Amino acid sequence: MAKVETVRGPIDSSALGRVLIHEHVFLMYMEYTINYRPDFFEDETIRKAAAKLNALKAVGIDTIIDLTVLGLGRHIPSLAKVAAQTEINIICSTGAYTFNDVPAPFAYYGPGLLCDRPEPMIEHFVRDIVEGVPGTGVKAGELKCAIDVPGLTPGVERVMRAVARTHLITGTPVTVHTAPKQETGLIAQRVLREEGVNLQDVVIGHCGDTTDIDYLMRVADQGSILGMDRFGVNFEMTMQDRVKTIAEMVKRGYVDQLTLSHDCCCWSDFFPHIDEYAKAMPQHNYLHIHNDVIPALLEAGVTRPQIDKMFIDNPRRYFEGAARRHGAKP
Prior knowledge:
Blueprint lengths: L2 E4 L2 E4 L6 E5 L2 E2 L2 H7 L6 H16 L4 E4 L9 H8 L5 E3 L1 E3 L24 H11 L11 E6 L6 H17 L3 E5 L5 H11 L7 E3 L8 H8 L4 E4 L10 H13 L6 E3 L6 E2 L5 H7 L7 H12 L4 H24 L3
Helix pairs in contact: 2-3, 4-5
């Protein structure tokens, strides 16, 4: 067993229950939201978000990992208000999301830069985990970075190595947003391994966006968990192809390294109204896996115990393994 930080405080890993490994509650370009979306700060936004999570709890999900970090509009005070109105455990994250450059505050601030000093991102990320996000008391329980189509740009590499070093200091597990068609998960694994990260402590995200079984096996064979985590994003891949890929990976013996999720949110400023997004992406919602994906997986030959492994056993082992390995370090 291990302690896992949630927005409401620490819980034992045995209390994680059924986990969606890659979700968001709020997604935004914060500067835009502050200036042009006052509705975000209304009580109704919090109420509606909590209602969606309560509906998710009602169908059997106990925990979500909210992977909203710098670059995606993380706003912990609002997340804490939602957590107070739902029984779902929300694990919040620290790190940074970029496909190219570091976040602007770090452009001239860091090793060898105009303001030359040790990597400040590590200091920020460690504080989020150990002391809590400033002004909130909420501790992050997950680390996140990204490597997409542009590949390992200097900015992406700097963030990734800062996340890796934070992991080594704190033992907090890591999720990486990747572009599987460009096989960037393998690049992420290489960089994290160079920094001394045990790849069992890493989720390679968005692996469900490819049907390339050979690539998925190469990632899994290095020990990482595969995030089959974009159910409902049908412009990337159909649900049928995602289900078929999971069924094939299960058939080949990789059920212990698969997790399921949607990568969706309750509110975003990416669309004027979330209802418009719902019309454009009707299956991209928190209930899609329960309503549509699980029946399809069962029909494809995946068993209930195997589905439970993806929801319960694999996320729990991920957190417990990271804590155990960190605790065993001299």
